[in-house]
Fold:
Amino acid sequence: MSSSVSYNQETAAPLADHCSKRLLLISYHFPPVGGAGVQRPLKFVKYLRQFGWDVSVLMAANPSVPVFDESLCRDLPDDLVIAKARTWEPDYRLKQQLGQQQTAKSGIAAKLKGFAKGAAKSVASVVLQPDPQMLWVPNALKAAKQLLARLPHDAILATAPPYSNLVLGTMLKKRTGLPLIVDYRDEWDLSSQYLENSRRDWFSRVVQERMQRSVLRRADAIVATTRGSTARLQDRAKQAGSRAPAYCIFNGFDTTDFEGLVNQSQVSAAERSRFRIVYTGTLWNLTNVLPVVEAVERLQQDSPELLDRLELVFVGRKTPEQVAMLNRLLATRCKVDIRDYCDHAVALQLMSDADALCLLLSAVPGAERVAPAKLFEYLALRKPILAITPEGETAGIVRRYFPRNHFAPQDVSGIANWLCDQLAVFPGTGRGDLESSADVDLTEFTRVHQAGQLADVLNSVVSRVQ
Structure:
């Protein structure tokens, strides 16, 4: 498999400089790949030029991913420099099949085949550390060196997960001497505990601990998406012997994404017979839907007639365990709309049409340092938020705008009572009982502001290492 560099021009000559500095962004996931994790690097690319930085992107040419979203490509600058490298990974569906437990089959041939698959999976788990995307790294390294040889760059930013991006960043820093900034969209340790198909065996923990210490020692700056994660990573860096400063740059929202949205809920709420709550995003062990299901089941027991006024919409990927929980809602009187992943613009319209938006975060160790990316788009829509999260950073942000709408995941009674209060008055004055963020300044959560924050970090790092 070969690597390739695309300059988005017919000529082989480098692009004319738009800015005084240029950043190489390492992001295995990049449009047309879809999903929440793509938004952050995409918006950095879109807005960094306003702050004196052009960007080149190193991405996978054939990414093994669950979803694609071509609509995101509209945000890419026409003259964006992109280096693409092929990965040796199998197709995502095949990876999922290999990751699932094989059902018992009779016959010696079937047992031998199952044993061989299990052995291959075990070997892959040992070799592919920290993640299967290490199969991308050799070609990515070659493509990056080709790009850097043709076009001068001033810094490298590697964003993760996957954490092999960070390993690749350290390789490039060693070969080029360029300063390296590592961007933790999620903490490595938390991802190892909760991500689908993550390795939780002792060998993987030891190997990945050493890998992360090596990354932190070689980084010139660390960026994280919450204050809690920033403090945690700063401590980890010091323990690893690094002096790299850590900065918090939240996830956020792009105001241009909301242009052209038609807010139909204000017009049709009185005509609808159901109070519509929308959840967007992946449902998995870190965003467990069980508290909502149990609250609805409690209403089914106590006030079933109220559920005739409730509509729940769930949009996005779901693990089998979460699907089983959602199926329990079908035995109640509420209306349930379960949808797969859809284009970002479609998801925003569904959120815009909601009467309230649901935010989920499980009460697991480390969740107090997590702030789901969708929270900020929820805030931008100025919609009431039903937040079901443990105490921590997310709860603190939500309470700024919706102090009466936050519940701990174990507070099923509180969630059920909140639903009861809204349904009892819908479609009358129920919306007036909810907090409003209409007059709140959300500038700190805009993608433009955050690109400016990153530019400040880049400028500081470059000036420090020169």
Summary: The CA atoms of residues 274 and 309 lie 4 Å apart. The chain has two domains: 3-102+129-252+447-465, 256-441. Residues 1-17, 101-106, 115-120, 429-435 have pLDDT under 50 and may be disordered. The longest strand covers residues 53-60.
